[in-house]
């Protein structure tokens, strides 16, 4: 079959690498893709939000299956447009992608269906938000309602900071229209775990767990980023935690969406916090995590295309989802200065090493081909990933592989997976 993947990051590279192993795939395209994805798919220069062009392309090439990797086009309704044109597409429709697209929606859903999450209030009026904060407990968490590249969350230590935060989100509109509405929620403490799942509208099958590292600097310091590295599985995601989540969170979310007339098909990403009172939902995403996909998909034994088709067809109950009994670690190589300001266009050396080693992957995030040379083209440049028999071995392997790659202003965290030692 002919497959079109929509997106351009490390996640889409991991999806493409996984899909390429399927005997069902004869030709793959990616829009817009990147220099690494070229290995598996023909990249076409159409942006992920150029719906008309994407649909026209899919029709022209007789695409049999479209996989939407990114949140923006999902929330914007690309799946609906593709389906209207007769293209089978993997991902939630617009009315279900709201699970990620609106934090106010997802908080109200959890409250209505008794899914454990932090206590909260939603606000559309900045004065009402500030009045509420006057009697609130600190620290407290402010969240812009809409999509904000994972950056619309402010943790405020006192009233003054929180008041400033309301201004930033709702009046200065730092995150654009995402700040028209805001969630104010209780601050929780605990370990964070990411659990991705496949959903076919009724059935949910969770994948192996992972943990992200969102802050830019070692020791979880510095600004929030799109993710500086991941490991999988999480040693903190015990059988007990899994059982609790299966009983109170996973199926409950799928059923809640169906009950609301918003049948969810695709990937639900559960951002969980393991609090003293038990696991609670921090956030939902309506897609694979990035860089979670980079450590989860390489460990999946199933044919990705078969699982994706089962989600579309509503036959996921017949799929036996299986993961390798090993571990993987991904270390993001970024451009010095990310996430604030950084230079681009530096040549990248050493990428060929990854073809020589089994169990090692270099997923491209911000790269491009320039005059026959792959150069840096973003803040997060590459996701160097390695498997190992356990987390410690995978981490040692991944860090060894970061040495294979050289480019000017290369920056990485040196403590990805440090939590493994505390498990
Ligand atoms: P989100 O986009 O909602 O996942 O938030 C981004 C990050 O902010 C999370 O990964 C947490 O580290 C942090 N965060 C979000 N909500 C809370 C909360 N209620 N309590 C503590 N930390 C939070
Ligand atoms: N790694 C977090 C995310 O994909 O949103």
From TrEMBL:
One of its GO terms (biological process) is purine nucleobase biosynthetic process. Gene3D superfamilies: 3.40.50.20, ATP-grasp fold, A domain, ATP-grasp fold, B domain, Phosphoribosylglycinamide synthetase, C-terminal domain. PROSITE patterns: ATP_GRASP, GARS. The keyword ATP-binding applies. Belongs to the GARS family. Its cofactor is Mn(2+); Mg(2+). Residues 107-313 form the ATP-grasp domain. The lineage of its organism: Bacteria, Bacillati, Bacillota, Clostridia, Lachnospirales. Pathway: Purine metabolism; IMP biosynthesis via de novo pathway; N(1)-(5-phospho-D-ribosyl)glycinamide from 5-phospho-alpha-D-ribose 1-diphosphate: step 2/2. This is Phosphoribosylamine--glycine ligase. Pfam families: GARS_A, GARS_C, GARS_N. Its EC number is 6.3.4.13. It is an enzyme of class 6 (ligase). Keywords: ATP-binding, Ligase, Manganese, Metal-binding, Nucleotide-binding, Purine biosynthesis. It catalyses: 5-phospho-beta-D-ribosylamine + glycine + ATP = N(1)-(5-phospho-beta-D-ribosyl)glycinamide + ADP + phosphate + H(+). SUPFAM superfamilies: Glutathione synthetase ATP-binding domain-like (SSF56059), PreATP-grasp domain (SSF52440), Rudiment single hybrid motif (SSF51246). One of its GO terms (molecular function) is phosphoribosylamine-glycine ligase activity. The keyword ATP-binding applies.
């Amino acid at each position: 079959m002919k497959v079109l993947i929509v997106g351009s990051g490390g996640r889409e590279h991991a999806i493409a690498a996984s899909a390429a192993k399927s005997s069902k795939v004869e030709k793959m395209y990616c829009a817009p893709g990147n220099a690494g994805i070229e290995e598996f798919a023909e990249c076409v220069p159409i942006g992920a939000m150029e719906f008309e062009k994407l649909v026209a392309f899919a029709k022209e090439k007789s695409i049999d299956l479209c996989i939407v990797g990114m949140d923006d086009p999902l929330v914007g309704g690309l799946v609906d447009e593709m389906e209207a044109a007769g293209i089978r597409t993997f991902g939630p429709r617009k009315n279900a992608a709201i699970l990620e697209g609106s934090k106010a929606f997802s908080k109200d859903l959890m409250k209505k269906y008794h899914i454990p999450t932090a206590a909260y209030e939603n606000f559309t009026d900045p004065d009402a938000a500030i009045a509420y904060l006057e009697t609130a407990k600190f620290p407290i968490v402010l969240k812009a309602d809409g999509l904000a590249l994972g950056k619309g969350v402010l943790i405020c230590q006192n009233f003054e900071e929180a008041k400033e935060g309301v201004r930033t989100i709702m009046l200065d509109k730092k995150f654009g229209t995402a700040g028209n509405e805001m969630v104010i929620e209780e601050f929780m403490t605990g370990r964070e775990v990411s659990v991705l799942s496949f959903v076919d509208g009724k059935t949910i099958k969770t994948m192996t767990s992972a943990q992200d590292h969102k802050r830019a600097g070692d020791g979880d310091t510095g600004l929030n980023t799109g993710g500086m590295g991941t490991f999988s599985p999480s040693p903190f995601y015990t059988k007990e935690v899994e059982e609790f989540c299966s009983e109170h969170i996973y199926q409950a979310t799928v059923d809640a969406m169906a009950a609301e007339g918003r049948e969810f098909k695709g990937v639900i990403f559960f951002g969980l916090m393991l609090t003293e009172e038990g696991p609670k939902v921090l956030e939902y995403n309506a897609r694979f995590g990035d860089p979670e996909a980079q450590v989860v998909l390489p460990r999946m034994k199933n044919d990705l295309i078969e699982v994706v088709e089962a989600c579309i067809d509503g036959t996921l109950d017949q799929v036996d989802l299986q993961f390798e009994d090993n571990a993987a670690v991904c270390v993001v190589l970024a451009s010095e200065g990310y996430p604030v300001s950084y230079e681009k266009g530096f040549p990248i050396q050493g990428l060929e090493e990854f073809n020589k080693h089994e169990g090692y992957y270099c997923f491209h995030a911000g790269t491009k081909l320039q005059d026959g040379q792959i150069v840096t083209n973003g803040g997060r440049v590459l996701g160097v990933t390695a498997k190992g028999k356990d987390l410690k071995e995978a981490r040692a392997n991944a860090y060894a592989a970061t040495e294979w790659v050289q480019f000017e202003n290369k920056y990485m965290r040196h403590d990805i997976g440090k939590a493994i030692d505390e498990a």
